[in-house]
Automatic annotation (TrEMBL):
<protein>
    <recommendedName>
        <fullName>DUF1330 domain-containing protein</fullName>
    </recommendedName>
</protein>
<dbReference type="Pfam" id="PF07045">
    <property type="entry name" value="DUF1330"/>
</dbReference>
<feature type="domain" description="DUF1330">
    <location>
        <begin position="3"/>
        <end position="92"/>
    </location>
</feature>
<dbReference type="InterPro" id="IPR010753">
    <property type="entry name" value="DUF1330"/>
</dbReference>
<dbReference type="InterPro" id="IPR011008">
    <property type="entry name" value="Dimeric_a/b-barrel"/>
</dbReference>
């Protein structure tokens, strides 16, 4: 069963975040991941949206998603992201 990783991002430094964006695609491919949604615009139909960016990733299963998140390749990208943004990650499935 597929698993999805939903990410809400608040960007503080666009240059640093751009470096993160360059690393992420290569980190998800070995785990069978793909981008479903990346970016903007987001319009709240109910409730409020207070973030700069929305990302939705799809993986073949929950374990692949967790393996990606905890991988060395993504750890490097995560460290860069943390210097220019904050994010909330959610796994579904």
């Amino acid at each position: 069963m597929a698993a999805f990783v939903l990410v809400e991002v608040d960007i503080y430094d666009n240059e640093v975040y751009d470096e993160y964006k360059k690393l992420t695609p290569g980190s998800i491919e070995p785990f069978g991941g793909k981008f479903v949604i990346r970016g903007l615009p987001v319009e709240a139909l109910e409730g409020e949206w207070k973030h700069d960016r929305l990302v939705l990733l799809e993986f073949p299963d929950r374990q692949k998603a967790l393996d990606w998140y905890n991988s060395e390749a993504y750890k490097k990208a995560r460290e860069i992201r943390a210097k220019g943004s904050s994010a909330n990650f959610f796994i579904v499935g």
